[in-house]
Amino acid sequence: MNLGHLILAMIFSNPHPRPKHEHPPVCDAIELFEEQLTFSQKAADWVAETVGSWKFIFLQTVIFGFWILMNATGWRYHWDPYPFILMNLVLSLLASYAASIILISQNLQERRDRIESRQHCLINEKAEEEARVILDHLTAQNRALAAIYETLQELQINADKANVGPQLKPS
């Protein structure tokens, strides 16, 4: 048996268990969370997103600017003359509903954040487990390589001893 066959026999005579990766696949918790939202929760998110945009601020400025212009100049019927009490009532009503709806949306966002944080924790735990398995496998490989190296050293020493016979000294 030559040296190559001996090495292969050593490697395959004591195989180490292969690393196992047994864990459920990672799912998108936020996607699952959003699938369970009710119509009112989706509406609250939409309102919060819309009211919190520059487009809404610009549109609101244009509408109330037009309101003031139409009632101050008097080209047509004055439905809300100065001091614009009706406009103040509309703005107060709009602000009170917008604040409540935005708070609902913020509570939903807080729940999303907690779920996402928990999912990140689970992913980190899985990654740590995977790293541990890989390190264990590398340790087993290092031990196997050390055993192979020691055996090769012994074989080399034995081969050198067998090849060393009576040698003639050159004169």
Compose a concise summary of this entry.
The protein has helices spanning 3-13, 29-35, 39-51, 54-73, 85-163. By secondary structure, it is mainly alpha-helical.
Q: How does this structure look, described?
A:
By secondary structure, the chain is mostly helical. Helix content is 76%, strand content 0%. It contains 5 helices and no strands. The chain has helices at residues 3-13, 29-35, 39-51, 54-73, 85-163.
Descriptors for this entry?
mainly alpha; 171 residues
Any chance you could write out the topology, listing elements then pairs?
Blueprint: H1 3-13, H2 29-35, H3 39-51, H4 54-73, H5 85-163
Integer-rounded radius of gyration = 39 Å
Question: Termini distance?
Answer: 38 Å
Q: Which residues form runs of ≥5 with pLDDT under 50?
A: none
Shape: rod-shaped
Helix content: over 70%
Q: What's the total number of strands?
A: 0
Topology as H/E string? Answer: HHHHH
Largest sheet, described in full?
Answer: none
The percentage of residues in β strands lies in under 5%
**Helical segment count:** 5
Mean pLDDT, all residues = 84
Estimated structural class: mainly alpha
